[in-house]
Design goal:
Shape: elongated
Low-confidence stretches: 1-16
Oligomer: single chain
Largest sheet: 8 strands, antiparallel
Strand content: over 45%
Radius of gyration: 23 Å
Number of strands: 8
Mean pLDDT: 82
Structural class: alpha+beta
Number of domains: 1
Number of helices: 2
Amino acid sequence: MIRLAGSGFALLCLLGSVDALSDVVQTKERTYAVKFKDDAVERYNVKWTLDFTANVREAGGTPPVPYQGASNAKACSWKIEASANRAVFLVTRLGQPFSLPKMDKVLDLDPRNPGKPYTLAGQRDLTCNDVKAERAEELANAKATVLKAFETQAADDLARLVKEAQANAEVASVSVLP
């Protein structure tokens, strides 16, 4: 699912152009079962979603003035953000999932700033077309970085959820389902 949005000519003349790319890069799901000491069993489905957003803005330049032309002094800036979100569902015996919002969480993706979403910003005093290749390389590198972090964080997060469930005195066992 990719959405691309751009501004119109009037906005371009006044504020510059803005493009946004928003993408769900990857999802991952796992299920674990909690068996209680009274033999009751609950199943939990965990879904992690990796969201990736890139905003590009070209500013500068002025509207044309009669007999004088327009200024071409433009600057291109971009901001890349990624976040991994966890959603947990209690699954009934009939297979109906019920959301558990208190268990939702945003995972750490940025090794430079633990506890925060991944953010990368860039700016050049050139038009966005002139730095298209450089920006595309930064986008590709950022995606690769967050994909690697996402896999690790999802696995670590599942281990934390299992450990939390095992810490409950009423729980007999916890098993991760294939």
